[in-house]
Amino acid sequence: MPRVKSLFRYPHLPRKSSAPRIAILGAGAGGLGLAIRLRQAGITSFSIFDKADGVGGTWRANTYPGAACDVPSHLYSFSFARRRNWSRKFATQPEILDYFEGLVKDFDLSSHLRLNTEIVGAVFSDTTNDWTITLASGAQETFSAVVFACGQLNRPFIPNFIGQDNFSGPAFHSAQWDHEVDLSGLNVGVIGTGASAIQFVPSIAEQVKSLTIFQRTPAWVVPRPDREFTAQERKRFIRIPGWQWLYRASIYWRLEFRWWAMKSDSRMSRYIEGRIRPELEKIVQPRLDHSALIPDYPIGCKRLLMANDWYTTILRDNVEVVTESIAQITPDGVITADNQTHCVDALIFGTGFSTTEFLAPVEVVGQKALRLRDAWREGSQAHLGVTVPNFPNLFVIYGPNTNLGHNSILFMIEQQIRLIVGLLVETASRDAKWVTVRDEVAERSDRDLQGAAKKTVWVTGCDNWYTDEKGRLTNNWPFPTVVYWWRTRFETFRDYVFGGTSS
Description:
The protein has two domains: 22-155 and 354-499, FAD/NAD(P)-binding domain (3-Layer(bba) Sandwich), CATH 3.50.50; 164-219 and 303-349, 3-Layer(bba) Sandwich (FAD/NAD(P)-binding domain), CATH 3.50.50. The strands form six sheets. A five-stranded parallel sheet has the order 3-2-1-7-19, covered by helices on one side. A five-stranded parallel sheet has the order 8-17-9-10-13, with no helix packed on it. It has a four-stranded mixed sheet with strand order 6-5-4-18, with no helix packed on it. With 503 residues, the chain is of the alpha/beta class. The protein contains 13 helices and 21 strands. The longest helix has 21 residues, at 409-429. Helix 1 packs across helix 11 (409-429).
């Protein structure tokens, strides 16, 4: 049975095969990682498009105070482009951005970059077997293949509150932080208590006059074991062969073990909750009841957050946590459902991202004029999160059901990159023009995935960004990551249709 190359040898384009021309949409982790691996596979005819003015994706966009990663830094880099001189156990946004910007220089990618260029459409031609992409400027270009590397966290979400357009002060989303606004001495309102808020709230609490946090539901927050690496530790990573590899492996398997907490009614989640809950109850003060601190949903149903200063911050004298829902926003503040008026001078939305409408707002049209939004009418889905039936030579990085609740997303992205490169090389080797996954394979894969999803904590009823409005799990991978590694490494070419000719 033919397979996607060997377990250890990376795919490489045969000398006599014609190289495809590839459009990569997104210059974040996925796009840059794919570009590196394409060059290493002998494919150099590709362009990397991004609407931003630089590379880095979400790590370029999110510049709010305190922005940092909740995955240990040594595992938040590619195995084929490891950084050995991380300054601390959990890297901050500037250091992560520096890593991705360094990849451009280290692997000579600058000539492939098309920055400040937004893609609004991608249409496949059944006649030419090519993709035509449409830029926001109206210009069109033709490519053999299109890879969406836009990620799941690229479109900030702001709820539509009554009267919010009438607010008189500065208002912005945390992913679009307005650094020209001086928050010193202001009464600031923060809407949302997700992963971004628990980082920027402690960073601004001392500078503002007062901080009113409007919280819909509390989050499970665990300590982040962060510190700077010692000079001796950093030397060890650089000078001792294999030391960093062992350190990365230890992080990976430690995080991988946490997957068992993602299963519904798991013993591990109950154990973790049993350790956390008493500690939370100790810090509850008369003015802050249990509902403001302790979630009523199981650990893992929403994203498990990591912070060392969240609880000390929300117990500050100048900080108030409001659990009543927001009724409307006025020019001077926020009115909650209990008819209380909270006067604020500035509003910051920590309300997350639109995550379930993958590839939006790009209009994608595949074979026989099939629109992707129609193919995904019942929910976003892709075989292994990468390929969609009837959309030849269309690939997705960090696509449907490839997000994680327990390990490093860069591990998943690496496996997707290997699969994409393997499929492109195999297509060229067969003198074909395109490849797409078979309908029955994609359907079987989705049934397997959604069946496994029912056994996870993510579909237990809490409101999270992992599921769509119908309750279908669209974002997360419901198995350990080692299963994903196995399936992408030993994916058979018999699961795909190869069509067209390159001549």
